[in-house]
């Protein structure tokens, strides 16, 4: 599975493997056991702009990737397999639920922002003009002509999406990171400044709040710049997540406002099919993106993906390392790591000094109460060892650090969802709510969440990146049309005749 | 970014950058900085860079408070005297509220 891609280049010594494996088995078995791939690692991508990711290991840091790999291998070979398996299934259940919740919250927030905006601010439902991507008018006399125009619009939209995705993949493939970053920064610049400026204006106008330019400029400047910093550079995780949700919501609102009615429904259907193709076909662009990212052991651009936890895997030191093969172990790790080149990155991330075992492990609860304590003890041991070692051989510092990290077990895993998924989910719900019928809105809302959970279940089964749009959007569309065409008239009839069900 | 995974030097560096960035009329950045590093500055056990981080955090807090005060005062003044200032205030207005009948 995915992890294999990362295997290359490492030779893992037997010792290491054992260690890596065992540890998981013992204490936090659940944690490590699954990392292998999976379940945890869900990802999804979305159709349009956003790419997917693989999760668990994906690391920003190489090591994690490796790490996982190690575990994997070992898994295959070692005797602890059985236990691990047990653990696995158990974990899957426990973690699965957490993941669902971790993704539900942002998705719900995003949809809520869009729905409330649509239902309270007239601007986003008022038609004025269309995007250039949808040149054909829907206001024609004959239905045949309308269908033709709608299909025409849909194909143009889809074409744009396909071309953009392909361009992105090509750029990524040929390592034009500068271009991609420039592109993404431009996009977020537009969303953070222009669209949110329009949004702010409409909100204030809607509530008739007087406002002066000085304050507005100051607010926009702060909002935009901080957003760019958080998304593209460094910022608190929650703030970054909030910004990503906001830009998805803004994007969704733009689609709702500027796409003609029927075109929008067709685009939703077309995009989810495209998502399916792009992610699952062997040559699908998004799949290539994920695989390339894994191969290179890089994270996918933060502006494209929402991750429920930090990508980095955290470090804790192996228990066994402490006693028997401690030093040699470290050494071995060292050797592996160094050739990687990117090692410079690593030491930064490994907080040797204060790596508290209690990281934000995204809901992967450690069940052993004393786990932390144990870990801490282990940390201590390792640290001491490291120190000793660095005393012993002078050149130690950086290398040592790296090694410590290396021997850590991956702790954090989260789920990733492409921002495009957020956008299209909220487009569907927002559009449904724009007709003012709450039954329909709620039906779509629930349908999308059910679809999302279903996708997460599939993720646990298949353990690879899956498209998040098809299931949810299909459910959403089915619920939308059935509620609007069947349930709503039925309910109306019932209430007219005073029948209460 | 997760602070727990950073080394102290990096934290200091990040904190400094946020602090300096705040001078570009970005009080929001100061606000974030003061909340983000609050724990590091005041609750964590002593570490080498703590003193500097503490200085930055305190300055950020002060900066944020001053900015909030300035903005609030300005908004209050503007809202209160907007009608009296006539044309000037109209030119400054992003949104001029509609009257009610």
From TrEMBL, chain A:
It is a multi-pass membrane protein. Pfam families: Presenilin. One of its GO terms (molecular function) is aspartic endopeptidase activity, intramembrane cleaving. Residues 367-395 have a biased composition (Basic and acidic residues). Its EC number is 3.4.23.-. InterPro entries: Peptidase_A22A, Preselin/SPP, Presenilin_C. One of its GO terms (biological process) is membrane protein ectodomain proteolysis. Its main location: endoplasmic reticulum. It is an enzyme of class 3 (hydrolase). One of its GO terms (cellular component) is endoplasmic reticulum membrane. Residues 1-10, 67-77 have a biased composition (Polar residues). Residues 343-356 have a biased composition (Low complexity). Residues 1-90, 343-410 are annotated as: Disordered. Residues 80-90 have a biased composition (Acidic residues). Keywords: Endoplasmic reticulum, Golgi apparatus, Hydrolase, Membrane, Notch signaling pathway, Protease, Transmembrane, Transmembrane helix. The keyword Transcription regulation does not apply. It comes from the Eukaryota. Homodimer. The PAL motif is required for normal active site conformation. Probable subunit of the gamma-secretase complex, an endoprotease complex that catalyzes the intramembrane cleavage of integral membrane proteins such as Notch receptors. Belongs to the peptidase A22A family. This is Presenilin. It comes from Paralvinella palmiformis.
UniProtKB/TrEMBL annotation, chain B:
It holds the Pfam family PEN-2. It is a multi-pass membrane protein. Its main location: membrane. It is found in: Membrane. Keywords: Membrane, Notch signaling pathway, Transmembrane, Transmembrane helix. One of its GO terms (biological process) is Notch receptor processing. The chain crosses the membrane at residues 18-36, 56-78. GO terms for cellular component: gamma-secretase complex. InterPro entries: Gamma_Secretase_Asp_P_PEN2. Coiled coil: none annotated. Belongs to the PEN-2 family. This is Gamma-secretase subunit PEN-2. It comes from Paralvinella palmiformis.
């Amino acid at each position: 599975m995915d992890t294999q891609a990362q295997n290359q280049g490492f030779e893992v010594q037997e010792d290491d493997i054992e260690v890596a494996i065992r540890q998981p088995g013992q204490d936090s078995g659940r944690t490590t056991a699954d990392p292998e791939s999976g379940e945890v690692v869900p990802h999804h991508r979305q159709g349009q702009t956003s790419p997917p990711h693989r999760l668990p290991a994906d690391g920003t840091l190489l090591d994690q990737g490796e790490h996982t790999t190690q575990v994997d291998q070992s898994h295959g070979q070692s005797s602890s397999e059985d236990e691990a398996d047990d653990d696995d299934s158990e974990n899957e259940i426990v973690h699965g639920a957490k993941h669902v919740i971790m993704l539900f919250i942002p998705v719900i927030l995003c949809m809520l922002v869009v729905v409330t905006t649509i239902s309270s601010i007239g601007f986003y439902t008022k038609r004025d003009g269309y995007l250039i991507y949808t040149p054909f008018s829907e206001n024609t006399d004959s239905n045949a002509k309308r269908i033709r125009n709608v299909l025409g619009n849909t194909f143009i939209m889809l074409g744009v999406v396909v071309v953009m995705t392909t361009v992105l993949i090509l750029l990524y493939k040929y390592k034009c990171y500068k271009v991609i970053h420039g592109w993404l920064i431009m996009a977020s610049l537009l969303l953070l400044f222009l669209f949110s400026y329009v949004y702010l204006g409409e909100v204030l106008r809607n509530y008739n709040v007087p406002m002066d330019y000085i304050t507005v400029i100051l607010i926009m400047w702060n909002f935009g710049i901080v957003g760019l910093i958080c998304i593209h550079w460094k910022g608190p995780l929650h703030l970054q997540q909030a910004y990503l949700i906001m830009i998805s919501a803004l994007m969704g609102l733009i689609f709702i406002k500027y796409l003609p009615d029927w075109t929008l429904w067709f685009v939703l259907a077309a995009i989810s099919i495209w998502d399916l193709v792009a992610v699952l076909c062997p040559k699908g662009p998004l799949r290539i993106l994920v695989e390339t990212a894994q191969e290179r052991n890089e994270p996918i651009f933060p502006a494209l993906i929402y991750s429920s936890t930090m990508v980095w895997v955290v470090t804790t030191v192996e228990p066994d390392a402490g006693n028997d093969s401690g030093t040699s172990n470290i050494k071995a790790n060292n050797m592996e790591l160094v050739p990687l080149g990117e090692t410079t990155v690593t030491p930064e991330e490994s907080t040797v000094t204060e790596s508290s075992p209690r990281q934000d492990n995204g809901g992967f609860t450690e069940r052993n109460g004393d786990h932390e304590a144990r870990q801490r003890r282990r940390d201590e041991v390792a640290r001491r060892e490291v120190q000793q070692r660095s005393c012993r051989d002078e050149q130690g510092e950086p290398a040592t650090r790296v090694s410590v990290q290396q021997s850590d077990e991956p702790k954090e895993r989260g789920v990733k969802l492409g921002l495009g998924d957020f956008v299209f989910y909220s487009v569907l719900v927002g559009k449904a709510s724009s007709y003012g019928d709450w039954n329909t809105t709620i039906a779509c809302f629930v349908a999308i969440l059910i679809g999302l959970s279903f996708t997460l279940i599939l993720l646990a089964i298949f353990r690879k990146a899956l498209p998040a749009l098809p299931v949810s959007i299909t459910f959403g569309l089915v619920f939308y049309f059935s509620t609007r065409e069947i349930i709503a008239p039925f309910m109306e009839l019932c209430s007219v005749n005073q029948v209460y069900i | 970014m997760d602070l727990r995974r950073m080394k102290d030097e990096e934290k200091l560096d990040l904190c400094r950058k946020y602090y300096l960035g705040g001078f570009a009329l970005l009080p929001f950045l100061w606000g974030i900085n003061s909340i983000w590093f609050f724990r590091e500055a005041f609750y964590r056990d002593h570490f080498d860079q703590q003193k500097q981080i503490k200085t930055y955090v305190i300055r950020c807090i002060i900066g944020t408070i001053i900015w909030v005060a300035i903005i609030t005062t300005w908004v209050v003044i503007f809202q209160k005297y907007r009608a009296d200032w006539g044309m000037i205030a109209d030119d400054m207005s992003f949104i001029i509220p509609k009257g009610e009948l």
